[in-house]
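Re: beginner question about structure tokens

> Can someone show what the tokenized structure looks like for a real chain? I only ever see the sequence side.

Sure, here's an example I had lying around. Input first:
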Amino acid sequence: MLKFLAVALLSALLTLPMSPVAAQTKDTLTVGLVWINDTLDPHMHYQRVGILININMFDSLLHKNTKLEYEPSLATSWKALNDTTWEFKLRKGVKFHNGDVLTAEDVKFSFDRVLEPGKEQKRSPQYGNVRAIKEVRIVNPDTIHLVTDKPFPLLLERLVFFPIVPKKHIEKVGDAAFAETATVGTGPWKLVEWKRGQHLRLEAFNDHWRGKPAFKNLVFREIPEVATQLAELKTGGVDLIRNVSADLLPEIKANAQTYVTSAPILRTHYMMLDMRTEPFNKKLARQAANHAIDREAIVQKMMAGLGKPMATVVHAAAFGYDPSVTAYPYDPKKAKALLAQAGYPNGVDITIHSAFTEFRPVFEAMAQMLTEAGIRTNAKIWDPGPAYNKFFQGEGKATHGANGSWGYYSVFDADAILHPLYHTEPGGWIGKWYTRVEGLDQLIDQARSTLDQPRRRQIYSQIQKMIKEEAPSIFLFYQYDTLGVSKKVDYAARGDEWLWLYDAKPKR
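And the corresponding structure tokens:
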């Protein structure tokens, strides 16, 4: 097997001094993250790190419990009135962090600021998630109707993470202040301090309708290097870290002060191939790249089995998954042959990009596999954060490929990955730039506009077969959410990838 598969990352570091913000008390929960999102406005981003923070500051109409079952949140009940209209009864007496009481006007405003015609591209990346909603009707102060343009089977799933924001407050302070210094929600914690590049400090909201959380203070620290996160976990600088790589697991398990909790999640990892430029504007070259990757070796030898090789873009736990779609077998010789047929008998040079520092060994391993199959690969690692986002998603800049990861917004339906990755309209995050497969837009639209589940399953099967043939991406593995946790804290990884820290408790 390739040499790199036997190489483990160095994880031993000199003991690092704790930063002042990280000084631990029994009423403070500190989380180490690779980076902190560049905005706190939950409607103006779709980055997973930002979502993990926002869910602790904002509430949605619906929530999912640890069993991933719907439960009431800002809405106490809901029902379908017909194929396109849903009624939601709002919880009474809910307060925002500034003391304002939640009303139906706030709910309508939250949807309207995302759905406002002509604003979706420049205002809200959340547009694609709720674009099916054509009208929000206020029936009375405690009741709203959501009306969709067509039957929309994903509505409830999409509402689980659609934060409700305060209308009067935003109109008073403006979008810019709301995104950084005056962020106000109804969630369990409220904003105290945000020092970019360092930390975000939250404080328990004592008037939260669920009751105040177990920890008075919640701190997110920005620590780019995962090995540094581990050192901080072991010395008490942080209480929880995410996406623990396989090489670090033994240290966490062996340490008397820490433990590991893990759960399979919807998150899928892949390499997006830019179909606008050579060599990946040619189907044979894209198929060659798929044959170059040994997915099983990556999962078993570099991730300690904490994952599952992917055969298709749709997760096995999601509605619409087609088990008959098989993965491209690992076959470097065939990869070279297909590359030659594509017009590159002497191989080809490419550059690929990634900002997933916690998966750097996997990324580098994939680059070496491609290189050995004749696709000579320069693997560029970016620091996670705004620079990478601007380079890759905002500008739509041409490149050869980029490492991607998608968590479905924890929506257990094929649409939650097919639309952002392969639809070319606004809201189709990747599809509008990189992965443009003829005919997919129409099929995705058909599947998300019918309540006929057998028909939807049939369409999703057709889509997955088309995607395999066209090979716009290299599908790698389904991820486990693996957390390192201080034994001072009682917390279990969730199957939806959320860090819902209201459930975290100090161990007595």
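Each token stands for a local structural state, so reading them left to right follows the chain. DSSP finds 16 helices and 19 strands in the chain.
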